[in-house]
Amino acid sequence: MTEHATEIAWSSGSWTNDPERVETDGTDLLVTAREGSDAWRVTSYGFVHDDEHALLAPMPRDSAVEVAFRLDFTAQFDQAGVFLRVDDETWIKAGVERSDGAESLGAVVTRGVSDWSLSPVPGWAGRVVTVRASRSGDAVTVRARVDDEDWRLVRVAPLDPAASVSAGPFCCAPTRAGLTVRFLSWRRTEADAALHPED
Questions:
Q1: Signal peptide location in the record (predicted)?
Q2: pLDDT tens profile 103-123
Q3: pTM for the whole thing?
Q4: Which of 74, 89, 142, 162 is deepest in the core (most CB within 10 A)?
């Protein structure tokens, strides 16, 4: 799925909210999240958080973005992955989040209010996770993998074909200070040709 991938420079994006610290280490980007940062709207918890750290650039129709990072979480709700934003009330975050003592792969899709889905990924800690969001037609398809293993389907969500969308890497640290995420790459490529692989 990445035959024609193009690297996106870290300097090409703009932060939704400035992190505590941003550093480069060779080609990697090290992002330290502010304590209490998160993205959520209303559902179940009754609050709105829009202080995530997302580094965004325009995402054209019929394209995909891939974000890779090293998974090294220790606290409740540590999270990182890819963020797609239309406006304050319309956005998607997808990646890995530590919840109730375990790393889980999932997504939050927000259209006025948020929903949340998670699936445990035992054995992913300490490894390289790549999250891919592919925009085609009236939907965005999210996939993820660890190292060079097969892609897993995470989510298919509606997305207005006419919407102006920006996308890129994100991280949040809702419960603690000191979370630093090592992002390894940010790429743009062609949208997936199909929702399911052909046999």
A1: none
A2: 999 999 999 999 999 999 999
A3: 0.95
A4: 142
Identify any residues that bridge with 120 across adjacent strands, giving them in sequence order.
Answer: 104
With contact defined as beta carbons under 8 Å apart, do 71 and 181 qualify? Answer: no
Residue numbers of the domain that contains 134:
6-190
30: burial class by Cβ within 10 Å (0-12, 13-18, 19+)? middle
Q: Which residues pair with 92 in a beta bridge?
A: 84, 109
Is residue 196 one of the residues assigned to a domain?
no
- Chain position carrying tokens 């959520």: 40
Tell me which residue of 143, 137, 89 sits closest to 114, measured CA to CA: 89
157 within some domain: yes
What does the alpha-carbon distance between residue 2 and residue 45 come to, in Å, rounded to a whole number?
Answer: 38
Q: Are strands 28-32 and 21-25 parallel, antiparallel or unpaired?
A: antiparallel
